Amino acid sequence: MLSIEHYLFLSLALFLIGVIGVVTRRNVIIVLMSIELILNAVNINLVAFSRLFGDVAGQVFAIFIITDAAAEATVGLGIIIAFFRNRETVLADEMDLLKW
Amino acid sequence: MLDKALFYIFGGVAVLSAALMVTRRNAVHSAVFLITSLLATAGIYLTLRAEFLFIVQIILYVGGIMVLFVFVIMLVNLDVALQQIQFSRQKWVALIVALALGAQVGLMFWSTGHVKRSNLLLPAAAPADKLPPNSETVAQSLFSAYLLPFEIASLLLLVAMIGAVVMAKKKV
């Protein structure tokens, strides 16, 4: 019999992999993809609790998070394209215009 | 029993391909592994009887967002970039952050040890012909209780669209 903990641990594993990706990768596109992974892990939690309590609200919130992820991806990728056009790089540690 | 097998298959694929996504050098490989991970997550939604989210996940995430990612990788991918170091020198920071977050969740499980085990088990699924229609219940909730957030979400998408167009324009 599956319990809620199975899903919580799965979501925790995906979340931590996403966090590691955000911190260690230099390529900004892969950092954005890791953020998508993190949002996805959150969705698993919401849907699992929605199933546990028999309440559909969790799935509605998961839909809102997917909307958010789409908005964030479009704006983020737009920024990456604009930055790449100016500086010819997609590496996070070379984006140091504001660094003193 | 089948539920458990499916959970472990989908969960294993999701975690494994997520780990591969973070460690691959090539951005396109990373994107492909992220797609695998998202598809496996869609399978997880199916084991949780969320059919509508299963479809939304495949159409929107895999069919929409990931195609956008692959397009941008194509636009900015330099052969030079592949030769460069792909990982920053923050391995220890990442490890410490991940351990701290994991310890926090472990603490949460430990401090809720008094909760009865039977309350944590997912309820047994109704037989297939008795399942409530998932899309219908989601739509009911979305268009009644969460109508205002729904409209705000559409506004957010509009703003994001305008923002993306302005960002990607040749001359601002």
- Largest Cβ-defined interface: A-B, 70 and 82 residues
Number of strands of chain A: 0
Contiguous helical run count of chain A? 3
Rg of chain A (C-alpha, Å): 17 Å
Shape label of chain A = elongated
Largest sheet of chain B: none
Residue fraction in strands of chain A: under 5%
What is the CATH architecture assignment of one domain in chain A? Answer: Orthogonal Bundle
CATH class of one domain in chain A equals: Mainly Alpha
First-last Cα distance of chain B: 58 Å
> Termini separation of chain A (Å)?
56 Å
Structural class of chain B: mainly alpha
CATH architecture assignment of the largest domain in chain B = Up-down Bundle
Helix content of chain A: over 70%
Let me know the number of strands of chain B.
Answer: 0
Overall tally of domains of chain B: 2
Report on this model:
The complex is a heterodimer of chains A (100) and B (172). With 100 residues, chain A is mainly α. Chain A is 78% helix and 0% strand. Chain A contains three helices and no strands. Chain A is elongated. The N and C termini of chain A lie far apart (56 Å). Chain B has two domains: 130 residues, NADH-ubiquinone/plastoquinone oxidoreductase chain 6, subunit NuoJ (Four Helix Bundle (Hemerythrin (Met), subunit A)); 41 residues. The termini of chain B are far apart. Chain B is mostly helical and 172 residues long. The interface between A and B is large, with 70 and 82 residues.
